[in-house]
Amino acid sequence: MNQPSHGRTTRRGGHRRALALGLAAVFLVSACSTGGSSPSASTAASAAASAAASTAPSTATKPYAGTTLHMLMEDLTETHYIADLLPDLEAKTGIKVEFEQVPYSNMYEKLVPQLSGPEKSGSYDVVAVDYYWPGEFARSGWMLPLDDWIARDKTDLSGIVPAFFDVNGRVDGKTYYVPYFPYPMGIVYRKDLDIQIPKTMEEFVTYTKSLKKGDFYGAAMQGAPTDPIAMEWLNFLFANGGDLYAADLKTPTVNNEIGLKALNQYLDMIDNAAQTGAAGANLDDASNTFAQGKAATMVTYVTIFAGFFQDPASSQVVDKWDVAPMPGTGQGNVGVWSFGVPKSSKNPDAAWEFIKWVTSEDISRQRSLKGGSPDYSSFYSDPEILAKFPYLTKALDILKAGKGLPLITKQQDLVATLGRELSEAASKRKAPQAALDAIAVKLAELATQN
Amino acid sequence: MTSPNVATDRRARVRVGGLPFRWRMLLPLFVALMVVDAFPLVYSGIASLQRFLLSGADKSRPFIGLDNYVTFLSSDAFVNAAGNTLVLSVSVVTIETLVAFSLAFLLALPNLRFRSVYLLILMMPLLLSPVAVGLLWRLILHPDLGVLNWVLGLIGIPKLAYLGDVNLAMPTIIAVDIWHETSILVLMFYAGLSALPHEPLEAAKVDGASGWQSLRHITVPLMVPIIVVAVLIRVVAAVKTYDLIYILTRGGPGTSTETISYLIWRTGLAGPLDIGQAAAGSIILLFVIVGLTVLLLRATDRLATE
């Protein structure tokens, strides 16, 4: 039975092989095109853009009628608050804004190919920049400095907490970003259960472990690679008095005894205090666990949950939670989102108008009244805002005490490395010291790439 | 006697105007393939030989020979990702082929009732994109809030962290992939089984062959070409698995589920922005897939000659 088909099969074999090879090549194109995305050909163009800006009649009535700005935004409450207020921008300037809202984890990979393209070629006119992107974006020549616009329009940004500009505003002496959304990290805890946050990190770990009973956990944690675990663990490091680098920003200190102590505490909590599967959980998973009333504490972003934990539709803990600083040094990880104008923006002048509008005191205050995270110092003592969100008095202390990431160029790579290696330790694939040593090797390498 | 002349005339007619007609017909396809396939491939090939970092002040892209290949292949991350890719690919292709063939064999049974209902149900996962499948399963598998742990809890099975436990993450991804991808193989095998000639099977029946003997000595050998093509398609897809990993585990816990495609992605777009090394990884993966394709096709030829 095989004989007759032999000749046919082998004859076709050649064609089929050729076809299959072609198919393999086609299938591979997607993988290869990842490597083949357009080269970053943008060269210095800020002078031209600034010149154009200086001639723009920003005082005329609706000078931007018909202009639509496209932006990539993280899908969270702060973005929704801004979206609600956008009709005000259109009424004042004529600018329409379209938000493409995506989960956080998709943002960097969507932004980079756009930002690295030629001038005015990108899909995004304004970019929301997280606190570990500013160095890389600015030093790669992807962003326009805002100083000329600020000077031209005499924009008063002095009300915004000045430290935010150090974290995510100024790079190498120029202002590239205007901060709008700080997210200091500390502890969210259940005040209705009489939880008392201890003074030291050792006590905190022991305490949260003692709170775990059956389906109720001492802590809701986010141990998934890469951003979640990195962001969470930095609080343990800072609260123990540790840091990633020495003051010179060249010598890694992450793998010293303080780093090891911080990691061992973290692993102890993941294993013995946190919810099932915490080593694979992200921020959504952990905050859902807390919102469902299944956890006593959560090391997290203390100012972003007004809309989530206070919403009866998503939360069982409405009015049952409060915030506290990290134990130990009281230092948590402080991030800030800022807005900047990329060189690839098709509408840089309108983009600046949007930034001016969204970070103005009036609009910022309206955002804060909706539950947003305040960017102006005065809002933390504003009676009307505090009446709605009393935890903000504590949040200001957490903000003041905290610290951000070192401003090296390759901050994203730093966080990616941190997340991956910490996750290796959390999943017992690497000993804690070995994971920290691997991080230190990478940090030393990244310090040379500024 | 007349036919050769007719053919010659026709050939003469279509040659008018330069290129032969058949080449002109192929031209649009050729151009499309050049733009869509050849250009990215050549570009990747060139990029793989350069120090090509997307970010940073230094935008120069000097040629550095095979450094990117050496760095990529000698990294611990590659060894880990290659191992994971091998485990994932072998597991899913083997299990999916066996399950799909069994299901297709049952579907092709002559007296089966409600065949179209079974087919419809089996086709449903096929209609979902891998991202939708990943999100769906992430919810189902959520340790605390997912339905799977809840159902298992009803019969006393303790909660498991399917994606957060280093020992469970890879088997879970394999299971989800099987759930998603088996359908396409079922469809191909069912089509193949339905198209098999009846005569050999009837002859075997007359000669007193058992059902198992017919399956072993007639059905399976007749199906070999279809099985090989189906396996080939699945192997190529499995070796490139990326989307499920991206949605379900992000390569974690640690790097325990990181595949080569995922490693290429994170090298190129999620951390170092090292396009040169990512391109080198892509070219290596291309050669692996071409190699697998050749091996499988040789195996087909061998089977056919036996």
Summarize the structure in words.
The complex is a heterodimer of chains A (450) and B (306). With 450 residues, chain A is an alpha+beta fold. Chain A has two domains: 61-182 and 335-401, D-Maltodextrin-Binding Protein, domain 2 (3-Layer(aba) Sandwich), CATH 3.40.190; 185-332 and 409-447, D-Maltodextrin-Binding Protein, domain 2, CATH 3.40.190.10. Chain A has helices at residues 2-35, 46-55, 77-93, 107-115, 134-139, 147-153, 162-168, 201-211, 227-239, 257-272, 283-291, 306-309, 348-358, 361-370, 383-388, 392-401, 411-426, 432-447, and strands spanning 68-74, 96-102, 126-129, 170-171, 174-175, 178-190, 297-301, 321-324, 334-340. In chain A, a hairpin with a 2-residue loop joins strand 4 (170-171) and strand 5 (174-175). Chain A is globular and about 65 Å long. Chain B is mainly alpha-helical and 306 residues long. Chain B has two domains: 23-47, no CATH class; 64-305, MetI-like (MetI-like fold), CATH 1.10.3720.10. Chain B is 71% helix and 0% strand. Chain B is built from 13 helices and no strands. Chain B has helices spanning 3-14, 21-47, 67-74, 76-107, 115-123, 130-140, 147-154, 169-194, 199-206, 211-239, 243-248, 260-270, 275-305. In chain B, helix 2 crosses helix 13 (275-305) and helix 4 runs parallel beside helix 8 (169-194). The model of chain B has no long low-confidence stretch (mean pLDDT 89). Classes of the chains: A alpha+beta (450), B mainly alpha (306).
